[in-house]
Specification:
This is Cupin type-1 domain-containing protein. It is a single chain. By secondary structure, the protein is of the alpha+beta class. The protein has two domains: 251 residues, Sandwich (Jelly Rolls); 164 residues, Jelly Rolls, CATH 2.60.120.10. The protein contains twelve helices and 26 strands. Helix 3 packs across helix 4. The longest helix has 28 residues.
Length: 486
């Protein structure tokens, strides 16, 4: 007991020191991103907001799909992943659907027969078909097009260019299914040994009854031999898929003959039920016909609908066909939100494109509405992010192909390298109009709040603060230091 009394005076001091140590450690680690370790600034050594972890989920001779994994945040799973799709000329991503919403952005094509110096001016084209409100539509896409494909909608993509390698950037937003895959799960309509078709899992007699066809006729659906998810649409692959298209058409003709037998009231009800089945089966026929025979499936399906009940799939929104929301001598920016392209509202995502001239800066700012994901589509530069506790989170050099993200409310800025412009494509986690709060510039919150209260917050006189804040007369996109000096 005496020993306890002698040492008890030191216990509060020891306990207090432990609390301080824990607090300091917590403050240092509070804003660390799970899975990232290291230290320092600049380059990629310490870049917690660079999405460095990627994996190739599809790779064939016809192209590849690479996905950059989003970061979990504050115990929540990542809101989105970023995908890069590359397709060789005259190739097809076979019809399939996935358990995630997609926002596609078509980049410029790369001409395989021109030197790299000429490729800045070239374009590529793609044909995409998908299911929209129980009907099939297809569209020709050009560089700058933005298109939403909802989770569960079967779709295909064709690189229709004969000389261009196609490039697509996509936001991939998982919808929270109970499936095992932590990225997304594809379900292939067509397929082979690699990427098997969902039809292959059904009993052949089940398919025969569903298609009202013989087992031999529907066997083409279960014995597919396509060479992966991305295939060249010539040679053996095209021949086989033509046969698949023919088999489905034959099944449809047999179903039409059966429908003619329904004559009484009960038969009419039965006919209507079969009509619903016919619509579902016709979806596959429409997809295959559109790919290989070039038939205007969209118009045919519209013609079959009752007058006054059309279903028009949303067209793609081209980001290059409109004037920038902001432009000055140092760059420009465009935002596409739910007001510009209503399908984005369903995914609650906006798309933006920023172009910074050499050495210029997107002024330090805060996005109070959404988290941002950025892809450097051309050029190089620096991305700088600040933690809420006032410490530097990241100052990373970025180049074409790098992907970064900035949590909601975190201050950040982007600076183009001095040797050339930098262009950034991005996605934000809100479909509403973005209203960034700029920390520097003519429209900054410092100018708006200028007064003795703000000066007191910095511990300086108002005149002293005003002298610093008023020096920058540009807004949003700021000139380089050399331009400011001039």
């Amino acid at each position: 007991m005496e020993t306890w009394k002698q040492g008890s005076g030191r216990l509060p001091a020891i306990f207090f020191c432990l609390l301080i140590a824990v607090a300091v450690t917590a403050d240092r680690r509070e804003w660390e991103v799970p899975g990232d370790e290291g230290g320092g600034s600049g380059g990629h050594d310490w870049a917690p907001f660079l999405m460095k972890k990627s994996e190739v989920v599809v790779k064939t001779e016809g192209g590849e799909i690479r996905v950059f994994r989003g970061h979990p945040w504050n115990g929540h799973p990542p809101r989105m992943h970023i995908g890069f799709v590359t397709m060789e000329p005259n190739t097809l991503i076979i019809p399939h659907y996935i358990d995630a919403d997609l926002i596609l952005f078509l980049l410029r094509g790369i001409n395989l027969f021109l030197p790299a110096i000429f490729n800045q001016a070239t374009t590529g084209e793609a044909k995409i078909g998908w299911i929209h409100k129980d009907d099939f539509v297809d569209r020709q896409l050009k560089p700058g097009d933005v298109l939403r494909i909802p989770a569960g909608s079967a779709f295909y993509i064709v690189n229709t260019g004969k000389e261009h390698r196609l490039q697509i950037v996509a936001s991939i937003e998982p919808i929270g299914t109970d499936l095992i895959a932590d990225l997304f799960t594809p379900f292939y309509i067509g397929g082979g040994e690699y990427a098997p078709s969902v039809f292959a899992g059904f009993d052949i007699r089940t398919l025969a009854a569903a298609f009202h066809a013989t087992p031999e006729e529907v066997g083409v659906l279960t014995s597919a031999r396509s060479a992966g998810p991305i295939i060249f649409i010539h040679g053996n692959e095209a021949d086989y898929l033509q046969k698949l298209n023919g088999a489905v058409r034959s099944a449809m003709e047999m179903m039409k003959k059966t429908r003619r037998l329904a004559q009484d009231v009960d038969g009419k009800i039965e006919m209507e039920a079969k009509e619903e089945k016919r619509k579902g089966a016709c979806t596959l026929t429409s997809i295959l016909s559109s790919i290989f025979s070039g038939e205007p499936s969209t118009e045919k399906n519209k013609a079959r609908r009752p007058v006054g009940d059309p279903v028009e799939a949303p067209d793609a929104y081209n980001i290059y066909d409109r004037d920038p929301d902001f432009r000055n001598n140092y760059g420009w920016s465009i935002e596409v939100n739910e007001h510009d392209y209503p399908p984005l509202k369903k995914s609650d995502i906006s798309v933006f494109l920023v172009n910074l001239s050499a050495g210029s800066m997107m002024a330090p700012h805060v996005n109070p509405r959404a988290t941002e994901y950025g892809v450097v589509v051309s050029g190089a530069g620096t991305v700088e992010v600040v933690y809420p506790n006032g410490t530097g989170a990241m100052k990373a050099n970025v180049k074409e192909g790098d992907v970064f993200w900035v949590p909601r409310f975190f201050p950040f800025c982007q600076v183009a390298a001095s040797h050339g412009p930098m262009e950034i494509l991005g996605f934000t986690t809100s479909a509403r109009r973005n209203r960034p709060q700029f920390l520097v510039g003519k429209n900054s919150i410092l100018r708006l709040m200028m007064g003795k209260e703000l000066a007191a917050g910095f511990g300086v006189r108002e005149e002293e603060l005003r002298q610093v804040v008023m020096k920058q007369n540009n807004t949003v996109i700021l000139p380089s230091w050399d331009d400011n000096e001039e």
